[in-house]
Amino acid sequence: MVSVGSNSKHVCVIGAGPSGLVAARELRKEGHYVVVLEQNHDIGGQWLYDPRVEHQDPLGRGSTLEVHGSVYASLRLASPREIMGYTDFPFLAKKGRDTRRFPSHRELFLYLKDFCDWFGLREMIKFNTRVEYVGMVDSSMFGKDIKWFVRSRDKNSEKVMEEEFDAVVVATGHYSQPRLPTIKGMDAWKGKQMHSHIYRVPEPFSNEVVVVVGNSMSGQDISIELVDIAKEIHLSAKSLEISEGLAKVISKYGNLHLHPQIDSLCEDGRVQFVDGSWVIADSIIYCTGYSYSFPFLDTKGMVVVDDDRVGPLYEHTFPPSLAPSLSFVGIPRKIIGFPFFESQAKWIAQLLSGKRTLPSWDDMMQSIKEFYQSRDAAGIPKHNTHDIANFEYCDKYGEHCGLPHLEDWRKQLCLSALINADANLETYRDSWDDHELLQVAHQSPHFTQLCPDAFDQ
Ligand SMILES: Cc1cc2nc3c(=O)[nH]c(=O)nc-3n(C[C@H](O)[C@H](O)[C@H](O)COP(=O)(O)OP(=O)(O)OC[C@H]3O[C@@H](n4cnc5c(N)ncnc54)[C@H](O)[C@@H]3O)c2cc1C
């Protein structure tokens, strides 16, 4: 139901991934006039699999990337499907599709397509439209009356478009711009070096000696995928205190070895580790994570990215000096993504229509300062500023826009999947023991709201 009123704003949403789609829906529901600009030919963001990597710098350096997607061909979700859906649109297993609990990336793309069709979102989206510049129309105006100038380019016709908006919602994701380590000898090393951003399939590493740097999700997935095809895989981890699941995998495969961090790379192909051990390698794949990057955004220094801290942002969403006309959806990490993006979107929509108000500039800045201080005191590095890993925070966040707390089963299923992955890295996507919780989830209103018989098998 759309309610158009005198408080409706002309809003530009940048990006039609999971964050941008739900932002568009919530903004329109609140009566705003919404235009979504999306550089790709379809919706989905990371979940629109993109095999094109050949023209990319393999290390993804430079501020403008040709390819947004970082998802590899074999990727299956790391989170069970039940916890992923937006609050009013469950991620159901559908006949004839990939019905697994941890389905392939394609299935999440199809879910997003269904979401888009169900709520008629496509009509708001301009595809193949890359935003190149966003800035204030008059940068001497702070506070409520800021207007935004958006310049974009049609990727097919090269036509440049310029438009003014009352508000801009940045929903451009943060799993594209490689975060690379600095290693002695990196520039002179003669082998292949690439970031996982451009890894798609294992075949190019056939019979090679490969060093995989980083043992988070992608590093683990890619190492396991390579054991059947590469000659040797040397996984370099920050700490040798690894999970039970990874330890099991390493002891199972004779060609997969664990090492500490790399000390240096030598011109003769040697990769030297800090404990003095070394290997001669053909390739290095850096699975070292991603950085926040907004190459199009000119806020006159009012929002900066400093060692992956995007700030200052009140509640990871609003820069106090530019709020609520500039906002960000999807910045937090280590959360249950889709429902969190939805609560951000609802809050933004309600603030723009005047239904709710933000605290004063001073109070927002004070809250940000206290948040930074608490993170520093807890010894959390700056680059982990937006790693939340806290259900209570997500519940409190939802209160800003009147969204109920996350269902208990959703939290418990999230935790049980994490525990299972930790202990059974190779099998957690196909074997689990949280059947009772799963039943509770399937009987909950979240799953029965659209299709009461969904789980009557
Ligand atoms: C390998 C990998 C595995 C993952 N696994 C999981 C998982 O199992 N579970 C999970 O919940 N999450 C996972 N994620 C995180 C995933 O990124 C989020 O689920 C989700 O895609 C974030 O949505 P988003 O809309 O914020 O960003 P994105 O999905 O990145 O979408 C951003 C959109 O903005 C567009 N855009 C960017 N810049 C511009 C511009 N200048 N102009 C116009 N459009 C622009 C992009 O083309 C894109 O469509 C994974 C990510 C990766 C990379």
From TrEMBL:
Belongs to the FMO family. Its EC number is 1.-.-.-. PANTHER family: DIMETHYLANILINE MONOOXYGENASE. InterPro entries: FAD/NAD-bd_sf, Flavin_mOase, Flavin_mOase-like, FMO-like. The keyword NADP applies. Catalyzes the conversion of methylthioalkyl glucosinolates of any chain length into methylsulfinylalkyl glucosinolates. Keywords: FAD, Flavoprotein, Monooxygenase, NADP, Oxidoreductase. This is Flavin-containing monooxygenase. GO terms for molecular function: flavin adenine dinucleotide binding; N,N-dimethylaniline monooxygenase activity; NADP binding. Gene3D superfamilies: FAD/NAD(P)-binding domain (3.50.50.60). Its cofactor is FAD.
